[in-house]
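Subject: for your reference before the review

Hello V.,

The reviewers asked for a structural picture of the protein, and I figured it would be easier to keep everything in one thread rather than splitting it across files. Below is the amino acid sequence we used in the manuscript, unchanged from the supplementary table.
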Amino acid sequence: MEKIYLVTGATSGIGKATAIELARTGAQVVIGARNAKGGETARDEIRAASGNKNVDTLIGDLSSLASIRKMADAFRAKYAHLNVLINNAGVFKSTRILTADGFELMFATNHLAPFLLTNLLLDLLKTSGTARILNIAAPSSTELNFEDLQSEKAFNALNALGASKMASQLFSFELAHRLEGTGVAVNAIHPGMVRSNIMNDANSFLRLMSSLFSGSPEKAAQAIVRVALGDEYQNKTGLFYSQGKEIKANKYAHDRDVQKRLWDVSEKLVGL
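And here is what came back from the structure prediction:
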């Protein structure tokens, strides 16, 4: 059976570098892109860098629930299974921005998007026999305010980002519980500080710190692909990795009541 890998947010940075590493294995790689022009450019660059022509694009806006559903439909129309899903796309905004669906942009893109896309493709992952889901996260300790998930009452950019990254951990660990015995492993991955455009909207100090202490996307991608494909990670699920090694998540991220509550709220918000 042909190996099929899907990476969201793959037109630049970690996502693009990860797609190149995956494509070098000779597998079919599908890259998520916000628009056709950017997707085609990245696709051609990934093909050239990897020597693999089996690179396809999946166009969609991850801040839009309708667009995510169209992406899932487009993928399903072309592929009958999925071996690895890497939810990499992420965003940071210094001001509170609402999506077309009325959600705060970071919460929508960093959490609701992977939650919905993963659930819509879950049967294709199960069909693969053994499959892996990797959610790019960060070791956040921010606890969620379920009374103000959209930051309507109070908005702080770094707190909103931290909450969205905590949501990624909670989602990963809850999904791992739900998929026990299915052959689908779910893990969160912290890529470390990596040079990318995600902090372009941050203030000058944060941009400077990010540039000074960030590593290359290529190095981060190698560690991500190791967890995505390595035999030593087979059947490892519900864990948090960085540089290929297990790290401890904040205790709050392992609270089953919080995990279930976020899952139930997310289901309602995305209309599952």
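For the response letter, the relevant points are probably these. Strands lie at 4-7, 28-33, 55-59, 84-87, 131-136, 184-189, 239-242, 245-246. Residues 4-270 form a domain with the Rossmann fold fold (CATH 3.40.50.720).

Happy to draft the paragraph if you're swamped.

O.
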